[in-house]
Amino acid sequence: MAPSPSHRRRPRRQRTWAVPAIAVAAVALIASLVVAFVPDDDGSEATASKVRAESSTAPTTPGPTPTSPSPKPTATATKAKPSTTPSPTASTPKGRPSATSPQQTAASVGSLAGRIRPKTTYQGVATFYDTGNGDGACSYGPTDDTMTAAMNHTDYETSQACGAYVLVRAGGASVTVRITNECPLPCAPGQLDLSPQAFAKLAAPSRGEIPITWTLLSPATSEKIAIRYKTGSSRYWCGIQAIGHRNPLARLEVRTGSGWTRLARTEYNYFLSEQGSGCGGSIRITDIYGERLTIDGIALRAEAVQRTGVQFAAH
């Protein structure tokens, strides 16, 4: 029996289908083998990259965000600069005043001292006068101190010599006196009019006048500076005086609303505030060596001698 045409065509269709299927299967097998032997680049590299990143950042940046630690060193450095940089700057101004302190430089001493200057020897003559109770042009009042002198008018210099200690020499003798008075003209520059007791330390009073040399001193003393307001002082007008200072005064200032105001000095050794500025407030005194002492708590009481507990340094 002859096969029907449809039967004859079916085997041919099966063979036609089978060959491509085998080929496809072979290709699929080969592809699977290739895939199996070729490494997965994407997966392995990502994992290695993570490991390297974690191992390289873990010691320094343990946090999950690698950039979070970076601002911390920046902030620390910024804080450290102000803490370290100002230290030399702050210490320098503190050091400079001691290194260039006015009391240690001759130039500044020259600008503050008047005619009577440290480390200078003056020549003149010595006379003596009746000192009475010890009061004089410097307005210190009566005193039991007998080692005093009156400075000649020129070197008295509007009371700038008041309170100065000077060492007087004549031949091989010497005596230290404090300036409490003025010797008016015709007393010549360099002349000192001594108390009788001081003159007797140098020569017999019968001589009357002797040649001398004298120099400014900054003596050892246990005395403290005192402040006194003049009779009639009030908050509308006042006169202020410093007493017992080791070194001559260069200036006296009072604190006002605009700062420190320098007061004018009188021949009777008071510093005047004509309009009352600063009367009863803080007082600042400066010696010829440039040392400043600020004094608070002085009551505005006329003629009361008020101790401060401070003194200028010795030189």
Descriptors:
six-stranded mixed beta barrel, alpha+beta, 315 residues, five-stranded antiparallel β-sheet, elongated
Layout of secondary structure:
Layout lengths: L4 H33 L3 H17 L13 H14 L1 H14 L6 H7 L8 E8 L19 E5 H4 L8 E6 L2 E11 L8 E3 L1 H5 L9 E8 L8 E4 L8 E6 L5 E8 L2 E4 L1 E2 L5 E3 L9 E5 L4 E4 L9 E3 L8
Parallel strand pairs: 1-5, 2-4
Antiparallel strand pairs: 1-6, 2-5, 3-4, 3-6, 7-8, 7-15, 8-12, 9-10, 9-13, 11-12, 13-14
Lateral arrangement of strands in the main beta sheet: 1-5-2-4-3-6
As a percent range, the share of strand residues is: 25-35%
| Class by alpha and beta content | alpha+beta
| Low-confidence runs of at least 5 consecutive residues | 1-25, 30-107
